[in-house]
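TonB-dependent receptor: structure, please.
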Amino acid sequence: MQSRNTLLRLSPLSCTLALALSLPGIAFAADAANTAKDLDKVIVTATRTPATVDAALAAVEVIDRAQIDASSARSLPELLRGRAGITLINQGGLGKLSTLFMRGTESDHTLFLIDGVRVGSTTSGLTSLQDIPLAQIDHIEIVRGPRSSLYGADAIGGVIQIFTRRDSRAGTHGHARIAIGSNHLREASAGVELRGARGGVGVDVAHQSTAGINACLGDYNPATWAGAGCFIVPGTHLDRDGYRNNSAGVHADFSPSTAWQLDARATRAIGHNDYDGNYVDNSDIVQQTVGGSARWTPSQRVQLKLTLGRNTDDSVNYLGTVFSNRFVTTRDTGNLQADFTLAQAQVLTTGFDWLRDAAATQDPWSPFTARRGNRAGFAQYQGTFGKQDLQLSLRHDDNDQFGGHTTGGMAWGMNLAAGWRVTASHATAFKAPTFNELYYPGASNPLLLPEDARSSELSLTRSGDGWQLQANAYQTRVSDLIAWDSSQFKPVNVDSARIRGVELTGVLALGDWSLRGQLSWLDARNQSAGTNHGKQLARRPTRSARLDLDRDIGDWGFGISGIAEASRWDDVANSLRVGGYGTLDARASWRLAKGWTLQANVVNAFDKRYQTSAWYAQPGREYTLSLRWQPDQ
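Here you go.
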């Protein structure tokens, strides 16, 4: 058994990552010609109002469409893997169940939004990241740290908002892409946007399919099976587990006057997933999000916005061709928000949120239905006083099942000399149990309590022309943390958990070179009394790192992405260890004509054999060749 203080093994890849992360420090003395574009990007997720990244009083990261196109990622989980504060657990490659842990909190402690609409299953509490098509995404905003005082439940670890594609330029614009790859990967996507002086409309479609791999590594033994991991009857399901996803997105916006802005969006993904199991081995899935907003700006000092949306998560599961069960969940949301500019750089935001979660489970052995509503009022103040910034937020939620819950947050920042900036924050958050945790027969616990959390963070940033370096240190304490106990085969409230972490991120743009480095240290421990006191929370590696290095040479582009993670435990009792790993992705692109780009990617170039979840193999070396058409590029 490893000591709790054991560091990430220094493989050549992890040494490379550590060295790369030191380069922004060297850049302090460099006269970089380019400015790191991320620093002045406008985000809305951190405060629910527009703010630039460098002015935000939170740890944020923006992944834009250019980064997505240039990356080796073929899915949203692959794009997010290894980023600061993020751990991805995947059960067998492309299209397979992927769960995300933000800053050591639980996999259902991160709130996901698509174009402002809350998404995720009300039964499992998870967002089907693997089913959100990467081709439909314009950009992503990642906000690390609690945001319950602005968004309510689920935002203990942070918020990730996905914005679907939209082209704001006047005229007609289009894009298309086709790709082939290992394991019979096939991808195709296209979109068109028509935009006039007062509005526009756009349509995007995409297809992705793969034969997959044989991911299951465990054999079923009734005497030792603990209800976790992949276990099948020996000699069965020794086949590939394929995946298919067809998606479409439409959007329209219209400005009848300078004071009014109307917007509507809808996305739908329909897919089929094969996997290994003795009771269920394939699923038909539907992921759908529909939303619209109306914004009224009667003056420069006042803005009102009404947003409505619905997310549907539908999974029909089979054993072969025999129906097993079906989970249909919906999340209906409404929000009315008012922003008042009290004075220069002084903004007051107030609003009302409404949420209704519903679930209907069709199962021959354990059907159930559930529904609950939540109403909330919130207020936020943002002010700038010379070199100092202040943010105060307060929210009260009234839940049909668990009653009232008040959360708050405060953050302060100050610009110092020579490009230095310091920020400090403290916030509270909460999470209500999911419907499965409460009601699913044979694997639930109706006595579960809501989880409560309080977090503190201190950040130090230094930036200049073309570079930025940021260090974040945080501590989160969670009371009544809900965790799966395989020995009891049900979720239980861990009396308390303490999570401490440090993140170091760096961005450097120097001539034709672009470097992004991210390094995370994490200590997430069970603090409850009993045999598990002091043990690490399951599925959280203590160390992780990511490096993205790219260079453009004329019409050519080259890049690598390295990801390394330390070992982690796969169970509450810390008895099942999953080893650490390091992988390297490589890519090359050629702009063969105006608007046309040919790109070749190698994922897991050294064919590393590893797991992120016990008993589920990850793919070995894979290749992708794509051709992209974007005439305005």
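Notes: Residues 12-166+176-322+336-342+357-363+378-392+411-418+427-443+452-629 form a domain with the Maltoporin; Chain A fold (CATH 2.40.170.20).
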